[in-house]
């Protein structure tokens, strides 16, 4: 769990730094590899990319030894890091509602994980399960991207952020399997198709996320990304990896309520003036 929390911290830092430059990119670069090439010239964005790589390394280690549902469910804690970092912008500070959002996110998440207690499950999905996961994720992401191409502003940022979150959830599943393959030896890792699928989908996910940052204010893209990633990951973990969630009866209602509290907290945090200020003033 500590590794997953460390990854979430680095992803939170990464989101703030990368958005501070991505939203300034020309609109015609959206959804094109040239967007990443342009952003790679920005030192602040590169620092964010470095934080993301470090976060990915911790995430891969955590996924190699723990459950997909548990590791990814801790993703929303990245906002608990992003908010105070963003509050360093001149004239911005943590408000009472920000602290309420932080408490709701942390408290709801803690209750959800304590109740669900997801098991470790299988080390890899069956080929049939992979087929269903890939088809469902890619079709949904494709539909969201198609919708985004006909929209501008918040609607575009929301659609691309959701699509990016779904793709990154799929890459997390691939990361879990790839980490286990490499733990069996370099040859085993390089011979695994999941390794190459991870590279392709990882770059696709990064492009979608940066395009969502470029499309509009972070108050739309970040909640979509932060919610979609763990939700899809938990679904994949339970269905494809057979990571059992030990809840039944009235406890299911409490679990659903705690998850709703977490999502509400995420929305509160992502719409904080300190976070939205990133859209107007690049981070130092």
Shape: globular
- Helix-strand topology string: HHHHHHHHHHHHH
Radius of gyration: 18 Å
Main pleated-sheet profile = none
Class computed from helices, strands and strand pairing: mainly alpha
| DSSP, total strands | 0
Strand content: under 5%
**Number of H/I helices:** 13
Describe the structure.
By secondary structure, this protein is an all-alpha fold. The protein has one domain (2-279). It has 13 helices and no strands. It has helices at residues 2-22, 33-39, 43-65, 68-73, 78-86, 96-116, 127-148, 154-183, 186-190, 193-215, 218-239, 251-270, 273-276. The chain is globular and about 45 Å long. The model has no long low-confidence stretch (mean pLDDT 84).
List keywords for this structure.
284 residues, mainly alpha, 13 helices, 75% helix, 0% strand
Per-chain topology:
Layout: H1 2-22, H2 33-39, H3 43-65, H4 68-73, H5 78-86, H6 96-116, H7 127-148, H8 154-183, H9 186-190, H10 193-215, H11 218-239, H12 251-270, H13 273-276
In short:
This protein has helices at 2-22, 33-39, 43-65, 68-73, 78-86, 96-116, 127-148, 154-183, 186-190, 193-215, 218-239, 251-270, 273-276.
